[in-house]
Amino acid sequence: MKIRIEDAATLGGVPKETRSKHSGFSLWDSYTSRRDHDTMIQILLHEKDPENSKDVDGFNLPTLVYLAREKRPQHRHNFKAGAMNALIRVSSKISNAKVILNVDCDMYSNSSQSVKDALCFFMDEDKGQEIAFVQFPQSFENVTKNDLYGSALKPVIEVELHGADGYGGPLYIGTCCFHRRDALCGKKYNGRFMNDWKSEIEHVMETNLQELEEQSKALACCTYEENTLWGKEVDNILSISYNTSY
């Protein structure tokens, strides 16, 4: 994988021989605009295909899906919020995992324990059912000593978000966040609700992977949210910054 990434960086694109191995990527050859294209989806790794979803030691790899939602110039795409909405719908069809991690394309987790840390909050027997999301502060590399341009967002992360605890908790800052799927989809929680984390996640697995890809395309079309409560009562409408998120 490291060699493939370095080759793509050197060439400024994915080599043709690599693209030819994945039919989903070949669809891009018919388009010249990233703002005007059909839904493109390919399930690269999945438990339904165990022969091709194991690492060199024989262990199962996590599900991996490539998705480019449909975009048309005449329809609003709502930036990151629209992308998250499409991912939530498609993932509910393919895996339906109970927790969703959202990071920006130029960010990564610097702690392998972050998932366990987030789950500790969600699975807390006393207060876990009241928590919709767990987010981590953004850490930045190569910031100048005095941070003249405020790149590290210290006033927001160290002051404003903490100050919001008395008003129902801080807003979602747009990245570095573990979401409870049910919360994103508008489900309300009360003291009587207790999530059974030990239960099996429900899968919609009656079809093969090719059929599952085709069925999922409709969930990422650019008109899916028109005349619905998506972005109003369900999930996001705009999450460019923490001031405009849900």
Automatic annotation (TrEMBL):
This is Putative cellulose synthase (UDP-forming). It is found in: Endomembrane system. Thought to be a Golgi-localized beta-glycan synthase that polymerize the backbones of noncellulosic polysaccharides (hemicelluloses) of plant cell wall. SUPFAM superfamilies: Nucleotide-diphospho-sugar transferases (SSF53448). Belongs to the glycosyltransferase 2 family. Plant cellulose synthase-like E subfamily. GO terms for cellular component: endomembrane system; membrane. Keywords: Cell wall biogenesis/degradation, Glycosyltransferase, Membrane, Transferase, Transmembrane, Transmembrane helix. It comes from Lupinus albus (White lupine).
